[in-house]
């Protein structure tokens, strides 16, 4: 039987970062796919560069960004000040919605401001509204007007579920909170800054950051096409589609529900739910709207909830989009369905004025499954309970899917680096 001190499952950002930062070089990285990258793969077609979905990097740790850049010689890395908008009622307003209600038509603005005041002003209501879940939190903090015009329809399109199922802090620091004072002040002095107000993106696509991490991995330590199919916690033995491997520690970024099933641990399967996202990458023959990087669409009549403009990031002369559609996890999306949805997307892009007589010259699609995990009270409790058992047996589940959380790509690198440091110090 093969034996390794550190067995790492997944050659995406989290797995590669763990290996890259480990001083102890006794490790092996398993990757079920035929290439590294996970969801950070990059597609090049007919002169267009796309990712599986929009993977942009928002660095708060200058040392991590510098470390990556050192390993990307010759790569032109663009720094972009984000410009995001919302399509509402036939016009465009600045993102986030709740801080820019003054840009709405007068009747909508009055409704939103009135409901916001009575939701947030102490003493304006007889009793405060409950905040036991995500949906209630939106009503309690922003009022009915803002919640029902944007926050609820948009997030229901994204998560493809009833928002009352989600924990009130399901999006953590990534949700753009604002109080009444912030919103009123924004009417005179705009401040729409967010955690990702600026971002970096290499001209070679997100895969360039993946390659930078992989360059620090020990040569020959990545086994492609090898997937984890079973895990014996007591013996600390991993079974793959090729062999059995004994380990001292196992680090995995695989979806947590799938990992737990492999171990045979008793658990509540209903605690772990998620959505799927169908992503279309679309390249057209000429330029489209300028000065925009993201557009958000709360209108339920539109197939997509968000589109991103690669051409305005790269500053190129042909419209290049990624378009995201949310689906429940049980949805079946066949190749025929993809064709049907692409036609619907093109119709909706025309209706929104994003394309007007443009010719589609290249396209690509991928189904992200899972895409966004549903963070609920049940998932938080069950993940915490099971993680204690797994870690007691040398198994560490990290990343967005392993941690069953909402996080940034940099968060994954930070988490992996800290775990590697803990291992080296042990």
Folded structure, characterized:
The protein has 3 domains: 197 residues, 3-Layer(aba) Sandwich (Rossmann fold); 102 residues, protoporphyrinogen ix oxidase, domain 3, CATH 1.10.3110; 94 residues, Alpha-Beta Plaits, CATH 3.30.70. Helices cover 33% and strands 23% of the residues. Strands 1, 2, 9, 10, 11, 12 and 18 form a 7-stranded mixed β-sheet that branches. A 7-stranded mixed β-sheet has the order 7-6-14-15-16-13-17. Helix 1 runs parallel beside helix 6 and helix 1 runs parallel beside helix 12.
Main features:
426 residues, alpha/beta, Rossmann fold, protoporphyrinogen ix oxidase, domain 3, Alpha-Beta Plaits, 3 domains, 7-stranded mixed sheet, globular
Structural class: alpha/beta
Which shape, going by the Cα principal axes? globular
Mean pLDDT: 95
Point out poorly predicted stretches: none
Helix content: 25-40%
Rg? 23 Å
Instruction: Assign the CATH class of the largest domain.
Output: Alpha Beta
For the biggest sheet, the summary is: 7 strands, mixed
Q: Helix count? A: 12
CATH topology of the largest domain: Rossmann fold
Q: How many β-strands, per DSSP? A: 18
In short:
The longest helix is centred in the middle third of the chain and has 26 residues, at 134-159. The strands form four sheets. Strands 1, 2, 9, 10, 11, 12 and 18 form a seven-stranded mixed β-sheet that branches. The chain has a seven-stranded mixed β-sheet with strand order 7-6-14-15-16-13-17. A two-stranded antiparallel ribbon has the order 3-4. Helix 1 (13-21) packs parallel to helix 6 (207-214), helix 1 packs parallel to helix 12 and helix 3 (106-120) packs across helix 4.
């Amino acid at each position: 039987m093969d034996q390794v001190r550190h067995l790492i499952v997944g050659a995406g950002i989290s797995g590669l970062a763990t290996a890259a930062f480990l001083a102890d070089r006794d490790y092996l990285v398993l990757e079920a796919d035929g290439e590294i990258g996970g969801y950070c793969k990059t597609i090049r077609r007919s002169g267009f560069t796309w990712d599986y979905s929009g993977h942009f990097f928002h660095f708060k740790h200058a040392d991590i960004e510098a470390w990556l850049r050192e390993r990307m010689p010759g790569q032109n890395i663009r720094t972009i000040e984000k410009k995001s908008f919302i399509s509402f009622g036939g016009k465009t307003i600045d993102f986030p919605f709740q801080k820019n209600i003054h840009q709405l038509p007068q009747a909508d603005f009055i409704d939103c401001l009135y409901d916001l005041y009575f939701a947030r002003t102490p003493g304006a209501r007889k009793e405060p509204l409950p905040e036991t879940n995500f949906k209630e939190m939106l009503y309690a903090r922003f009022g009915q007007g803002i919640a029902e015009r944007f926050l609820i329809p948009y997030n229901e399109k994204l998560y493809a579920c009833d928002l009352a199922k989600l924990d009130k802090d399901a999006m953590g620091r990534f949700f753009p909170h604002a109080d009444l004072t912030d919103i009123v002040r924004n009417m005179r002095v705009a401040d729409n800054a967010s955690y990702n107000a600026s971002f970096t993106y290499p001209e070679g696509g997100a895969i360039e950051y993946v390659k930078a991490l992989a360059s620090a991995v020990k040569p020959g330590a990545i086994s492609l096409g090898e997937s984890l199919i079973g895990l014996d916690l007591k013996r600390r033995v991993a079974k793959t589609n090729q062999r059995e491997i004994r380990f001292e520690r196992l680090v995995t970024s695989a979806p947590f529900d799938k990992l737990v099933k492999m171990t045979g641990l008793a658990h509540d399967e209903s605690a772990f739910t998620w959505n799927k996202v169908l992503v279309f990458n679309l390249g057209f023959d000429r330029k489209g709207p300028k000065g925009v990087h993201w557009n958000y669409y709360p209108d339920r009549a539109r197939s997509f909830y968000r589109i991103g403009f690669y051409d305005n990031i790269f500053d190129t002369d042909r419209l290049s989009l990624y378009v995201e559609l949310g689906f429940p996890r049980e949805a079946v999306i066949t190749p025929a369905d993809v064709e049907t949805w692409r036609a619907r997307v093109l119709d909706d892009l025309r209706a929104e004025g994003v394309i007007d007589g443009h010719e589609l010259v290249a396209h690509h699609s991928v189904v992200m499954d899972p895409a966004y995990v549903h963070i609920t009270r049940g998932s938080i409790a069950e993940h915490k309970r099971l993680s204690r058992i797994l870690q007691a047996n040398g198994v560490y589940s990290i990343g967005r899917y392993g941690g069953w959380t909402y996080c940034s790509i940099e968060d994954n690198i930070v988490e992996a680096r800290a775990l590697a440091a803990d291992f080296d110090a042990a």
